Known about the structure:
The structure holds two protein chains of two kinds. Chain A is mainly β.
Amino acid sequence: xxxxxxxxxxxxxxxxxxxxxxxxxxxxxxxxxxxxxxxxxxxxxxxxxxxxxxxxxxxxxxxxxxxxxxxxxxxxxxxxxxxxxxxxxxxxxxxxxxxxxxxxxxxxxxxxx
Amino acid sequence: xxxxxxxxxxxxxxxxxxxxxxxxxxxxxxxxxxxxxxxxxxxxxxxxxxxxxxxxxxxxxxxxxxxxxxxxxxxxxxxxxxxxxxxxxxxxxxxxxxxxxxxxxxxxxx
Lengths: 113, 110
């Protein structure tokens, strides 16, 4: 059954290290979103892509975060260098032509020590 | 930007109805969604309502929309233990970007 796959599920790293999170959207979906979830801020939109082109990444700290779609089957979110305040659950979601029905992955739980 | 507010917690006895409320600020919202998040999982679309509707029913779920007051509610009839989760409302304008509420954690009392 079709689902969004995120790897890794859990990541523990030290401050200053590079972190790469990956997402495989549902085959045929052309819209991909990255969200971050924390207790304090709730769900925040970091970036979204349509047809692999970034449409909005205004929610992302530009100096350390970057998001790309090297091809239609892979979206990546990188943090370099990571900081303790980046600790959160990062979700990828995909949809067909927008947000009408988004499918979320299980998330990457990131802990930066 | 859109502000979306929900109560943080709700406790309901098994078998009773649960009502989760949401208020929002953007009156131009066209689709208003409800998502469910179970522990350790991503969000899952439950239902949605279009802004020209007042009510939508889908099995045990009833969505009510009061556009004048910018108030949205989700009623779950005959609440079961499997309904324990965090529920997010998410109004949106057109087909771009969801703004999620703070989420309401629903706890079922046996």
